[in-house]
Structures are given as C-alpha cells and as structure tokens.
Amino acid sequence: MRRHRLVATFGVTSLVLFALLRLGLGRTLQTAVERRALEDAVERADLVGGLAIRPTLLIEEVPTGLSPDRARAVHRALTPALGGTGVIDVKIWNRFGRVLYSQDLGQVGSVEPETTILRSALEGAQRAEIVDVSDSPRPALRRHEQVLRAYVPLRFGTMGPAAGTIRATLPYEPVQQLIDTETRRLYLQLAAGLAVLWAALFRLVTGASRRLREQAAEQQHLARHDPLTGLPNRTLFAERLREALADGDKLAVILMDLDRFKEVNDTLGHHHGDLLLQQLGDRLLETVRPGDTVARLGGDEFAVLLPKVAGEQDALAVGDRVRDSLQAPVVVEGFALDVDVSIGIAVAPEHGTDATTLLQRADVAMYAAKANGEGQIVYEPRLEAHSTKRLALSGELRGALDRGELTLHYQPKVALGSGEVTGVEALLRWQHPVHGLLLPAAFIERVERSDLLGPVTEFVLDAALGQVRAWRDEAGADLDVAVNLSARSLHDPALPSMVHRILRRHGVAPGRLTLELTETTIAAHAEAAAGTLSELAELGVRWAIDDFGTGYSSLALLARLSVHELKVDRAFTCDLLTDPAHAAIVRFTVQLAQSLGLTVVAEGVEDAHTGQALRMMGCDEAQGYGIAYPLPPADLVAWVLARTAAQVVTA
C-alpha cells in the first residue's frame, strides 16, 4: 500500500512538473517565433519600400501630399508590386503626420496624431508590433484578427533624415501556424524525453521504495533484537513478558549474568568476548522449550521468559539445564574457556504482576546468587536488603568523588637488604558516611564500567602526587609512590598529558611515580600498552607489572615493553616456605628480572621468615601485612619515622 502511494505521488508530481514545463517552454517558443516574425516583417517592409514605394513616389510630392489622381496612380502601381511579398496592407505618412498613401484611399490626405512608433521610424528606427484588428472597419483586415505591422523610415537617399514612415501589414496566421507546428514538435519531443525519464525514475523510485521497506524492516528488527547474538533485546523481551502476563497464566523470568566475563575481555580482548556471548546464546536456545524466549539484555546479561509454568521448580529445572550446558568449556578461536553463570528467578504472580517488578526481583535474586556463589536463587523478600545497598552504592558513587568521600591509603614497600622504606603503593578507599570504610572490591567494578574511570584515575594520581610533595615539604620524607591503572586507561590518549600535567602541578620528579598494570592487562592490550608505556617512560615515569606470574605474557613481550619493575603475586609468596613449586616460580622470576635489569617486589609478605627467604633469593623489595597494613597519610608518616628511628638505634 505504501509503495502504491509513493508511486502515485511520484506520478502526480511528474504530471504537474510536465504541465509547468510544457507551459513554460511553450511560452518561450511562442516568444521566439514571434520575435523572428517581427524581424521578418521589418525586412519585408524595408524591401517593399525600396523596390515598390520609392520608385513610385516623387520626393517633391512627399511634403505636400498626393492628389487623388496621383494617389490612385500610386495604388495601381503598388498593388501588383506587393504580390508575393506577403504584405496585405501598406500605409505611408510624411514627416507632418499626413497620410500620403493608404490602400483605403479615403484616408489619403488625412492627418493622424503622431504616435511613439511613428516618431521612432521618422528618427530612423525600425519597429514592429503585433496588433489585434478584430474590430477594424476594414473587412479585409478584420478577418485576420491579428496582424504584424512593421514601421520603417521612408528615405530617397542614403543620407539625410527620413522623409516619412512606411507601415507594412502582414497576416499573423502563418506565424500562428509556425508556432503551432513547432509547439507540437516540442511537446512530442518533450513527452518522449519525459516518458523515458519517467520510466527510468519510476524504476529508481520503485527500487528505492523496495530498499526503504527492507531498511525499515531491518531497522525494526534491529530495534527489537540484539545485533551481536540475533536474540530478542530488552525491548522485545519486555513486550513478550507483558503479553504473557496479560494471558493470566503462571510464568517465570530467569535473569543470568556471566561470572568473570570481564576477565575474558581484559585478557583476550572484546572480539573473543563477543564470540563467547554468541556461543552462549546458542547454548541457551538449546535448553528451552519452543515457546520460551531467550534474550540478551545487554553486556553479559541474558534473560529467559518461561510462559505457562507450574511453579518455580520448572524455572529451577531450566536453570539447571543452562548450567549443565556450560559444563563443557566454550572454545573460542582455540581458547577453551570455562564459563559459569549466576541465575536469578522470579515467578508471576507470586513475585510480581507487572514486567518491571518481575525483572527487578529477578535481578535482585541474580545478584544475590553472584554474591553468595550459589549458582541460582529464587527471589525472596529478604534479598531486597542486599539489593538496596548495592543499588544505593551505585547511585552514590558518582557523588562520592564530588563530596570528597574517596581517599587514599598507602602501603609501604621496604628494601629487603637494608630494611629502608623505598616507597608506597596508593590504594583507593571510599569513606562512606553510612557503611564506613569500603575497600575497592565493593565499588571499583562499577567505576571501571562507567564514565567515572577517567575522573577517578585523575583524582588518584593528583592525590597521590600531592601527598608525595606534602610528605617531602612537611616531614622531610622523600618517598616514591605507585598507582594502579585500569586496562581502559591504556586506551585513553589523554593519559600521558594528564600524568605530565599533574607531575608539574605538584613539582614531583617523574621518577618518583610508578604506574602499575596487571600482567593480564598488558598481555591482552599489548599494542596499546607498548605505546602508552613508551610515551610515559620518555617522561621518566616508571612502570611495574603487577601480579606477575598469574597471566600469560611472553618473555618477548616483557623484553619489548618499557618496564622497570616486576611484582610477584601474593599467590606465590604466601606459601613460599611450604610449596617448592611456588618457591621455584619466585626464584625464576627474580633471576629473570635481574637478567633484564628490573627491580623485583614481592607482594603479600606476611612474616619475617618469608621476607628472609625472599632476600636470600635476591628479591629487592617487599610489601605485605607482615611489614605494614595500608595506612592513612598521617599514620604512614608516623610509621616511616618510627621505623627509621628504630633502624638508627639498631645500627
């Protein structure tokens, strides 16, 4: 129907344009033909004057006029001379407006008022006009309705003023016939050309109409489906949920979220993460009934609508099948990935009678399952307390930075050989007005997924470097500081300029700042890491690979990057004294770092015996609860001064 409307609109528009074009071109053609006819009339009048009139008249007769006999003689001479010229009437005036000759002999000798066109001819100009003679007293003229009248000067020599004016009258009918003929030819050519153009445009319009319909259908599909997996999206899922609720049958909503999906993206990249989501969608479709709806709501969150269920046990059975389908690793371009999901279930009408409530309560159950590690949980009212806190923290996080609730604590690093404090690691904390001091595990994931990452990163760098300057000015403590960076920060082109700006603001030497990235992050973002590390290393900033030994970076990559420090993960140092394998890994890491000229820092040192063992292996520095807990700035200074004083006394 829409196609017919489009074609009809195009047809009507084309006809209107054709009519306007025809009218415009017809007028233009008529004007051109009439212009040529008037020019021709002037030429004929001049020809009649030269060949017939001047030889017949005597120059001395012109000023005084012709006698009746003389006028009849001129008439007899002119009549045959006009044959073949197309001229149907001739009239001659002298300079005083007296009619010298007229084919209506009764007008000879009369004086007529001077007109503009007569005056122009007397002054030497040649003029012509189209005149309506339908009311002429002369029947011979009246039958023509319109005529061409040309006015030319009457001269008896090549020099001197005109002696009078000659008016030659020609019929308009030949002009009209020519106009009609040329107009018909033009209209035929125009119609043929427009027919070809219309046919071509019609084909284009119908093709465009078809493509528009296809694009509209595709856009409608994309508006209701996930482009990555092809599954229904949140919009279509909500529509189907509302339709199922309207039927009045018992139904269940299952929400699920991939566990540790962020690690896959950070380690292997978003391309592999997308492939994982596609395969997960396919597996979910295999676990449900034909009438069920599987949807991707966004990110790594999926939903299943189970209409017409007996109760929550049916939904739990589907959840079990989903989890069973993920027991086998998902192979993504050669990588075998172990995947698990956290599932939340809400049942209507027990847990809600509208789509919004059911989705919200399934979401509460899903996050409870994730927090408790229980796999899947059916909604219960008691779960709302945990959900309320989680949602509240998410909403309050944006204002926490503005309100000054984010703060830094600092964990010292010491040289294992001398015991000297070499620097500190800045660790982010949230001093929440209700929940107290929150560690990063409670909120950092929300920061990294939001647009707050840039501002929070800048806050941490600014606060840490400002504190380094304050310790130096106020306590005489010259300490280095290490700051952890997110994987997303590597892709921020403004990071190097931001670091440089903050260093200059606080007057801190670039070598006092160490930026830490996990080994997994560097391996997954090698190209971005290489460029960013190199640019900041040129400024003098130091780089450290955090949690070394837990990722998959190659030795070639390690040698290529501008790295200054390796930090051995606490997973290897915590049982160094009891696990020979972990001891061997630490020993190899130390030897590798020494061969590359890198500093080795051991994390998670809990006691003096572990520190002694690390020193014997050649490890440079250590940090951990056995040395000092993360401390607020003032307590950190007090701890450093006390430790320094104790070393002086011991020495």
Describe the largest sheet. 8 strands, mixed, barrel
Distance between the termini: 97 Å
Within CATH, the superfamily of the largest domain carries the name EAL domain
Radius of gyration: 51 Å
CATH-defined fold name of the largest domain = TIM Barrel
Q: How many β-strand runs?
A: 21
Number of helices: 22
Q: What is the overall pLDDT average?
A: 84
Give the uncertain stretches in residue-range form: none
Shape: elongated
CATH architecture of the largest domain: Alpha-Beta Barrel
Integer tally of domains: 3
Q: How is the largest sheet built, in terms of strand order?
A: 13-14-16-17-18-19-20-21
CATH class of the largest domain: Alpha Beta
Beta-sheet strand percentage?
A: 15-25%
Pairing-aware structural class of the strands and helices? alpha/beta
Helix share of residues? 40-55%
Protein described:
With 651 residues, the chain is an alpha/beta fold. It folds into 3 domains: 2-178, PAS domain (Beta-Lactamase, 2-Layer Sandwich), CATH 3.30.450.20; 234-379, Reverse transcriptase/Diguanylate cyclase domain (Alpha-Beta Plaits, 2-Layer Sandwich), CATH 3.30.70; 404-650, TIM Barrel. Helices cover 53% and strands 19% of the residues. It is built from 22 helices and 21 strands. The strands form 4 sheets. An 8-stranded mixed β-barrel has the order 13-14-16-17-18-19-20-21, surrounded by 5 helices. A 5-stranded antiparallel beta sheet has the order 2-1-5-4-3. Helix 15 (495-506) links the parallel strand 16 and strand 17 (513-518). Helix 1 packs antiparallel against helix 6 (173-224), helix 14 runs parallel beside helix 15 (495-506) and helix 15 packs parallel to helix 17 (526-539). The longest helix has 55 residues, at 2-56. The chain is elongated, with a radius of gyration of 51 Å. The two termini are 97 Å apart. The model has no long low-confidence stretch (mean pLDDT 84).
